[in-house]
Amino acid sequence: MPTTFDFINGVQEYTTAVNRAFWQDIINLISRKPAQLLSFEDIRTRLRLREESYRGLQNIELERIVGSVGRYTDFTRTFLPRSKVNRDRWTRIYTETVSGMGLPPIEVYQVGESYFVRDGNHRVSVARSLDSKHIQAYVTELSVPDGIAGLLISNQMAAAEAYIAFLDEIGLRLTHPEHESLMLSEPSRYPELLGHIRLHQEALNCETCDGDMTLEQAAGHWYDQVYLPAIEMMRAYDVLGRERGRTEADFYLWMVDHLQELSMEYTGAPSDFNPAMASWMGKHRLPVPQELGYLANAI
Fold first, then answer.
1. How far apart are the first and last CA of the chain?
2. Fewer CB within a 10 Å sphere, N or C end of the chain?
3. Model-level pTM?
4. Which residues lie closer than 8 Å to 40 by C-beta, 6 or more apart?
């Protein structure tokens, strides 16, 4: 059972934590670093999260908790309590924890590898103040494309939002739920990639002569017959090698834009590639020599 000494110690720990929160906010303000927890509702809306799956009780890493459903302004990004946090409630939880009663499981939403507190913000704050590394949590997972979690942790929401908008526009999340990543390192280039898919759609409509191919259908065909074979070939030849900061989609886009020059340099003859027909690559499967690894620097 908690003792009077445990309670007094808890009050002191709360006061220390609030002071640390103040200085953390000041330092982050001056250095212009993000200090706020992420709002789950904002993330859910901007990333168009819909499908939920209950994953049961798990032992999760506290450092992966990056936001909250409704209390994201009450705590700093490291879950230090701001002055608006109820002192008595925080102290009671701290006292019960250090006295051996432990912390009841919290409830969280999982988005990629990141977590958002649904219930239990004070428990997370106390656990962090005690330097705990893990906490028990009932987890509900929301499905997101690969790579999004890293963007959330690094606060690159604009990049994540642009990628989700692109995937939804071409319908790939519905037609190919397990698709390989099409993420670009520069979000402003998604319209360019979308342009290649629209040109592929035009080429397919010309071939069928009926003009009924939708963007979603064309994107699925482009992914299966053009993009995926190109990506698999890149991996087979280890084109990207140890290059960092560039994605496979980056190199694909660069390669399509420079296919004419590559054909001349490595086959000695111009290709019949028409920039308006991105499906050419899928039909001809131009080999990418291993020496092209250095070209990743030019993307």
1. 63
2. N
3. 0.65
4. 67, 68, 69, 72, 109, 116, 118
What phi, psi does 74 have (nearest 5°)? -85, -20
**Residue ranges covered by each domain of the chain:** 4-153, 157-298
CATH number, domain 4-153? 3.90.1530.10
Task: Identify the sign of the CA torsion 257, 263, 264, 269.
Answer: negative
What average pLDDT values come out for the chain (299 residues) when binned by 10 residues? Answer: 73 90 82 79 86 94 93 91 90 90 93 92 95 96 76 70 90 87 90 90 80 88 90 80 75 78 55 42 40 35
- CA dihedral 170→171→172→173, nearest 10 degrees, is 140
Is the CB of residue 259 less than 8 Å from the CB of residue 281?
yes
The two three-digit tokens of residue 280, written as one number: 């050419």
Ordered alpha helix ranges (H), 50-156: 87-96, 121-129, 148-153
Instruction: Name the 3-class secondary structure at 15.
Output: helix
The answer to whether 116 and 69 are in contact (CB under 8 A) is yes
Report H helices in the chain: 4-31, 40-46, 87-96, 121-129, 148-153, 157-170, 172-175, 190-208, 215-222, 228-237, 248-257, 259-267, 280-284
